[in-house]
Specification:
Layout lengths: L2 H22 L4 H27 L4 H12 L1 H12 L3 H30 L4 E3 L3 H25 L8 H24 L16 H33 L3 H13 L1 H12 L3 H27 L12 H18 L3 E3 H19 L2
Antiparallel strand pairs: 1-2
């Protein structure tokens, strides 16, 4: 690592320690919540550049997959601890928020940055991943809409939402596994040689391990401070989950994709964002539903109608804008605007 990166990692480690001290010292909830949130974002940054260094040995597909998978670790832990604390709405809305924050906000900003730096103001990228992502996202939307209709119409199936969600989760995970094997096959072989400045493999692995452990601990402190903090601030739990928790838990995609887009690496930038959207929809969400069966409070695909509509309509908008493999800045701005509208609705929940 460079001296600058070493200083940044040390600062993030110190911030994480401060969050732990504040948690165990019963510091004011709002302050602990804020420090833990910044620490989560910092740990996500460590995951980001360590994974990018690891990805220098592979192609953009594998790198984007690693970035998204490891970048979703904070979100995974946040949802688990929220479920354990009985914060079902926060757990649900943070997952929905992750989908929308990545698919609308981050993707939109990435397109704006990428298009402004591209020839002719047109950001170009391979259309395969956007189209694959939409196929996977629509599978998740299908399950969510079917259960939503059953619940709103008092259908008999609504009484078996937990079982339907579990079976649907297994189905989504199988499809995701089949897609992933096909998508990564071309990228599994390492490049002939790593870049001369590539971070040593052992260093990357050590940083990723430390960041993963840190994310688990900080997520616990973050969730413990969540309820009293949002009560003090007068923020709705829906807004906290949809916006604050989702953005803090997905800081990797929030920063990495923008940096890559600014460097003109359009395919890799889109890969990071789209991989994250696909993983949340058909891996993270269903995996957490299955894991939650071990908890007193279970997670299902049953969502409030307003968020069912948000996910469904967002999926159509994302496909319309990115399905052809090119996008302009105003299209990115349209995606950002959609996220702002959903966030505003959550504010008044």
């Amino acid at each position: 690592m460079s001296s600058r990166e070493t200083i940044v990692v040390a600062a993030i480690a110190a911030l994480s320690v401060v969050a732990g001290v504040m948690h165990y010292a019963d510091a004011p909830a709002v302050a602990t919540f804020a420090v833990a949130g910044f620490a989560l974002a910092g740990l996500a940054y460590v995951v980001s550049f360590a994974t990018e260094a690891l990805g220098e040995r592979f192609g953009p597909g594998m790198t984007g997959f690693l970035q998204s998978t490891l970048g979703n670790l904070p979100e995974f832990f946040v949802v688990l601890f929220a479920l354990n604390a009985g914060e079902i709405l926060v757990a649900q809305t943070s997952l929905i928020g992750s989908l929308l924050a990545n698919g609308l906000l981050v993707l939109g900003l990435t397109i704006i940055v990428g298009a402004r730096g591209a020839d002719g103001g047109l950001m170009r990228f391979s259309p395969r991943l956007p189209n694959d992502t939409m196929t996977l996202l629509m599978l998740a939307v299908f399950v969510i809409v079917i259960l939503g209709v059953a619940t709103s119409s008092n259908d008999a199936a609504a009484g078996h939402a937990k079982a339907i969600s579990a079976i649907g989760s297994i189905s989504l995970l199988v499809v995701y596994g089949a897609w992933l094997a096909s998508y990564l096959r071309a990228d599994l072989a390492p490049t002939p040689s790593a870049a001369p400045t590539a971070m040593p493999l052992a260093t990357s692995a050590a940083l990723l391990t430390a960041a993963g452990v840190g994310a688990a601990l900080v997520s616990d402190w973050f969730i413990n401070a969540l309820a009293p903090a949002i009560d003090s601030l007068g923020i709705s739990r829906a807004f906290a989950g949809l916006v604050i928790v989702a953005i803090a838990g997905n800081a990797v995609e929030n920063t990495t994709a923008l940096v890559l887009a600014s460097k003109g690496q359009a395919d890799l930038a889109i890969s990071v964002v789209k991989n994250s959207v696909a993983q949340i929809a058909v891996f993270l969400f269903p995996a957490l539903i299955l894991v939650s069966l071990l908890f007193a409070h279970s997670l299902t695909f049953v969502l409030p109608p307003v968020y069912i509509a948000s996910i469904g309509l967002s999926a159509i908008a994302i496909w319309q804008i990115t399905g052809d493999g090119e996008a302009r800045a105003y299209e990115g701005a349209a995606l950002v605007a959609l996220f702002v509208i959903v966030a505003t609705v959550a504010w008044f929940e």
